[in-house]
Write a structure and sequence with these properties.
Low-confidence stretches: none
Number of strands: 4
Shape: globular
Strand order of the largest sheet: 1-2
Distance between the termini: 18 Å
Mean pLDDT: 92
Number of helices: 2
Order of helices and strands: EEHHEE
Bound molecules: zinc ion
Radius of gyration: 12 Å
Helix content: 10-25%
Number of domains: 1
Length: 91
């Protein structure tokens, strides 16, 4: 999982620092994402930025496909839930 220094590590979507875990998602390094999403590999994002991102659905599709062919647990699949919010799948 990506290293996160609260208030320092920038969001991979907006570039602003991610301050706290109330608006936070972290991604491990898969190394198999398409070039358009490589900047999200091993990154931290504001959950609100990812959820409102115009490329959200395409990224979620590619992330989940990359996870499927990795050794990561099924809980690392992303889901788009109500209001477009993106979160990890719960067990
Ligand atoms: Zn952001």
């Amino acid at each position: 999982m990506a290293m996160w220094d609260p208030g320092v590590t920038p969001c991979a979507v907006c570039g602003k620092p991610v301050m706290d875990k109330s608006d936070f998602l972290a991604f491990t390094c898969l190394g198999t994402l398409p070039q358009a999403y490589e900047h999200l590999d091993d990154s931290v994002v504001h959950q609100s930025c990812l959820s409102g991102w115009e490329q959200r659905d395409d990224f979620v599709k590619h992330w989940n496909m990359a996870v499927r062919y990795s050794s990561l647990a099924p809980e690392t699949h992303l889901l788009r839930v109500e209001n477009g919010r993106v979160e990890y799948r719960r067990k």
